[in-house]
UniProtKB/TrEMBL annotation:
The organism's place on the tree of life at top rank: Bacteria
SUPFAM superfamilies assigned: EreA/ChaN-like (SSF159501)
InterPro entries to which the protein is assigned, alphabetical: Emycin_Estase, Hydrolase/PRTase-associated, UCP036794_erythomycin
PANTHER family xref list: ESTERASE, PUTATIVE (AFU_ORTHOLOGUE AFUA_1G05850)-RELATED
Listed name of the protein: Erythromycin esterase family protein
Length: 431
């Protein structure tokens, strides 16, 4: 083990490159840009550098390499407001205002200061573009059942659609659960009182009238279609959530890939997408202990579905610093210390190889040197630093899990926008 560790450190030193700014990452960006989908990860949902670095990478990919949309681990309805803003179809005057409608806990994931520069840049970038050439911003997560249903009803009312009756039947079916997914999940799982038939009938009807809806407005139909998809898959997710964590996780990640594919189809054959999610979603599950548990994820599904050459996954990690997280589900966030990484973990070896920011790209030449299983830190929205050694390290074959890795030696917490915890709803589990 001692020989392997010392050799791994030597290999990190040989194959990694230090970085100070976005220009230093051009080698990684150039390699990644050949893929159709670039998956950018994060070891936490509350680290400032992960947002700012990925924001700068995205600018490069859009401006220099023709990427056409961004898909994030966020709710479709809230992110669609951001999409409308960056495309110039919003009454909001500043990104900070549009972020004010991120209410679901943990709101700090998107209602933070670090994301604002990217949103404003996207708006400026799109300003002189034709509608079909504007870069979009979309949330592909599954949680927004009630918000998506309400959006569907409002739109169908607006255009006087014959599908309005089906939408009303579906949303009325969910009314008794008072927007509490755990209540619906318990009822559907144990009492057989499900709304699945209603949401399936609605989605099928929407899809069958695709041409008619697209005559109204193509992106409005995309919004309608994805909200219908969310309604269907969220119903299944919340039902599974109370009985089977593995099934609910897999439903969620399959949904995110399904939504990603629909958005990609909207942008046509030349579409190139940037996906922004936690490492546990974008790093191939087959290279981790997740596989033995029966879990799949976006990284695995996209590689299998679209082909490995079309997917480039970049993991992110840190040795120590601070992070925004909560001690319990639904609690108010705190700035927490991230202790030094566990001895002989991936992050600790990166630190020992040189206590500075660095990146690696895994190639045929060097991938073999990083294929052994090693602990790799993952911090969710709930975090207890005192116990992190017992549950925050995922055994991983790093060079199989990712195509590249960006390491920040000392990181700091994101800065939540002041309103980010006001009125947050506390819905489903999240990593």
């Amino acid at each position: 083990m001692v020989i392997k560790i010392s050799k791994t450190i030597e290999n990190i030193q040989q194959y990694s490159q230090p970085f100070h700014d976005i220009e230093d990452l051009n080698g990684l960006i150039e390699k990644a840009s050949k893929a159709k989908y670039i998956l950018l990860g994060e070891a936490t949902h509350g680290t400032a550098e992960f947002y700012t670095i990925r924001g700068e990478i995205r600018k490069k990919l859009i401006q220099d390499h023709g990427f056409t949309f961004i898909a994030v681990e966020g709710d479709w309805p809230s992110c669609y407001e951001v999409n409308q803003y960056v495309k110039g179809h919003s009454n909001y005057s500043h990104a900070r205002e549009v972020l004010s409608q991120f209410h679901r806990w943990p709101a700090w994931m998107w209602a933070n200061e670090e994301i604002i520069p990217l949103i404003e840049w996207l708006k400026a970038y799109n300003l002189d573009k034709k509608e079909e050439d504007k870069v979009g911003f979309y949330g592909i997560d599954v949680y927004s059942l009630w918000e998506s249903m309400e959006t569907i009803v409002a739109y169908l009312q607006k255009i006087n659609s014959p599908d309005l009756d089906k939408a009303m039947q579906a949303i009325t079916c969910f009314h008794p659960y008072n927007k509490r997914p755990e209540q619906y999940g318990m009822s559907a799982a144990f009492l057989g009182e499900s709304c699945r038939e209603e949401v399936l009938e609605l989605l099928n009807s929407i899809v069958s009238k695709r041409r008619k809806y697209m005559e109204e407005d193509k992106e409005s139909y995309l919004n309608l279609q994805i909200n219908g998809l969310v309604s269907k898959n969220a119903e299944a997710y919340y039902k599974a959530m109370v009985t089977d964590d593995i099934e609910s996780w897999n439903i969620r990640d399959y949904h995110m890939v399904e939504a990603l594919e629909i958005v990609s189809q909207f942008y046509g054959k030349a579409a190139k997408g940037i996906v922004w999610e936690h490492n546990t979603h974008i790093g191939d599950a087959r290279a981790t202990s997740m596989e033995q548990e029966g879990l799949v994820n976006v990284g695995q599904i996209t590689r299998e579905k679209f082909g490995e050459p079309n997917v480039y996954a970049v993991g992110f990690g840190t040795y120590g610093g601070t992070v925004i997280a909560a001690e319990k589900w639904g609690d108010r966030y705190k700035i927490m210390d991230i202790p030094p990484a566990q001895l002989n973990s991936w992050e600790e070896l990166l630190h020992r190889a040189g206590s500075f920011n660095k990146y690696l790209t895994f190639t045929e030449e060097n991938r073999y040197f990083f294929e052994h299983t090693i602990g790799h830190r993952a911090i969710g929205v709930i975090y207890e630093a005192a116990y992190e050694h017992y549950g925050n390290y995922v055994p991983s074959k790093v060079s199989v899990r990712y195509d590249g890795f960006i390491y920040v030696d000392q990181s700091k917490a994101v800065t939540p926008i002041a309103f980010s915890n006001e009125g947050e709803t506390r819905l489903a589990k999240d990593t």
